[in-house]
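Retro notes, item 3 of 5
We never archived the inputs for the guanine complex last cycle. Fixing that now. Sequence and ligand:
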Amino acid sequence: MTILDGKKTSDTIKDEIANRVSSMVDKGERVPHLAAVLVGSDGASLTYVNAKVKACKRVGFNSTLIELPENTSETDLLKKIDDLNANEAIDGFIVQLPLPKQIDEQKVLLAVHPDKDVDGFHPTNVGKMVLSLPTFLPATPYGIIELLERYKVETSGKNVVVLGRSHIVGRPISILMSQKRAAGNATVTVAHSQSKNLINITKQADIIVAAIGISEFLTGDMVKEDVVIIDVGITRVSDPSKKSGFRLAGDVHYESVSKKASFITPVPGGVGPMTIAMLLKNTLLARERRNNM
Ligand code: GUN
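Structure as it came back at the time:
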């Protein structure tokens, strides 16, 4: 069994990006600049955004963190987005999700200029992704593709089962892996909360992408021998034996599934660090594209 080490792979990608940035600096060029908008003080979102800002520093990008209060109005957030769209110094930006309930997420995603949409969430960029046109791929699916590619996991002609149909992970990874592309050419099934006889579906899978947000949902009895496991979930589960009182768990019951798997991503240290590395890659792409305009 091989661990798909997202931490190590993301470090390699960050080194590659840092080298690009160094040569930009040597040539006297402006370095990429990512901005992140965080509305409210959700603990997990704050952790993720801080990790993104830290990663920018590591590779030599400029970064700006914009923290807005929980009660920010939709109008004020849309105004902030307009400012970032117009700001020549910012190459790309993200609005961390989820947003407080007074704000319509769809309106926010539509307001981000597609050329600065390094999350790849704008309908224009989603459309380009579906049509296999060059665009910003959403960071988590992009990270999964990159991890499979770098570990040379064969996907062509394989049965892939995606658990979950979210706009951020399940839907896009199902599209990407069915396309004629690296880490693609697979026969993809999307299973979700209304799927019947799930075990019959997962037992057929050569590769499973678990992205349903239910901790330790996928158990050893649900998978076949030599399955490849990509675990996107990350939730806190209480664990009195830990000083913090909790541990991080994925959507996969690691102990039982890893006994049967040929490849598996750990949690933490699997998909999470890859997501951040691919956001940096998209920001570098945004910077390079502006250079050509
Ligand atoms: N919330 C969970 N994942 C993501 C992500 O990839 N981007 C943003 N903006 N918010 C998220």
